[in-house]
Amino acid sequence: MIALTGEPCEDELVVQPVYWAPILDHLEDELEERLAPYRLAWQNTRSFIISYLGDAIAYQPIPGERGPEETLIYKQIHEQFEHCLTRLARMAGDKAPLCVISHSLGSVIASNFFHDKQIFRTSSFRSPMERGETLAFFYTLGSPIAIWGLRYKNFGDPLAVPAPQLKKHHPFIQGEWLNFFNKFDVLSYPIQSINDRYCRAVTGDVQVNVGHGLFGLTPAAHLYYWTNRRVLGRIAEALARATIALREEEGLPPVKKKKTWYSFYKRWF
What we know:
- Helices cover 41% and strands 11% of the residues.
- By secondary structure, the protein is α/β, with parallel strands linked by helices.
- The chain has a single domain, classed as 3-Layer(aba) Sandwich (Rossmann fold).
- Helix 1 (22-35) packs across helix 2 (43-59).
- The longest helix has 21 residues, at 72-92.
- The protein is globular and about 65 Å long.
């Protein structure tokens, strides 16, 4: 998650990673240990399946009558998001515009997290950011949201991006939701076309060529969105526009254009 502050250049972006995988690591390790005596073939592939599918299955809340255990993992992962959002609000400010960049299953979790905030609104959170009101940008990379939609009739309802309350806090900022996918990445899918509601909610599905050499022509492309020049460029441009809008909104002078890390990245790679 990234928040914009409107401060001088070096302080304009505040970054807060969300690490949710450790919540499930010990369970998946325990499962592999219990299966080890069977000496199953393709162990590395099985480890990947347990890791990826295990995360998705464990995260899924199951309606039942056995009490809170049914939704324990779902709640724990969302609580981790909540702690990180609170930390980000303290560092960047209660009303700082929020940009969420998510990959793979993380895009499903981030989507659910903010969708829950928009549907089950609560006043228990002190700041607009913690309530999800300043969500301005949402970027999904290698996202299986389309498959996750199988849980719902007609593939479900998307979250609203930007958040409906954003204009109240930042009237000059134009938010967006871009979904980056690769046609060789079997875990990523376009999502605008799954129903009319997603068509209206998502600004655009962007097909990108990710990965190096032959890796870009295989499902291994799923791992390479974070270093793709086109992905980084589109996000950087949006953050730059938002920073300009935020400074105008607060009556601050425009920032002098100067070389940035992205300028050199774009030039040399």
